[in-house]
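Hello Y.,

Per our agreement to keep a running log of every chain we model this quarter, I'm adding this entry. I've kept the format consistent with earlier entries: sequence first, then predicted structure.
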Amino acid sequence: MPAETFLPPAADLPKPEIYADLKSQLGGLMAGETDLIANAANMAAVIYHGLPELNWAGFYFMKDGVLVLGPFQGKPACIRIPVGKGVCGTAVEQGVSQVVPDVHAFPGHIACDAASRSELVVPIAVDGRVIGVLDLDSPVPGRFDEQDRAGCEALVAVLVDHIR
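Predicted structure for the entry above:
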């Protein structure tokens, strides 16, 4: 699918339909492409422009035992995050998605953008090893829920399928 054919889903659709549409569009954009950075860059843009109420969407990838900033959409971000620190580092350490309704209540939260109020982080695992995370931030408290978690985990699965 050529990039110019991307159409963000209507914000008033139910979340499962929004995520199904984004998943379909990502599959088309990534068809035949296996480069992780290229696919992550397009994925960050699709999510940022396709989901309402986000102020940041992007990736951190593991390098030399720490998370290092990857492709993203939004304001400049923290460059390195230690495993076990903040929401992203916790997602890597635990190997499970983190849905955080209030980042100010999360122990050890790393504030890259003071406007962020809620966060969703999904680990990216290949062959049982976490290689990075998808990180979404919102200025809206409680923006993310279990439907967002499930939807973003499905989007990450598309990415993983295209980097093997």
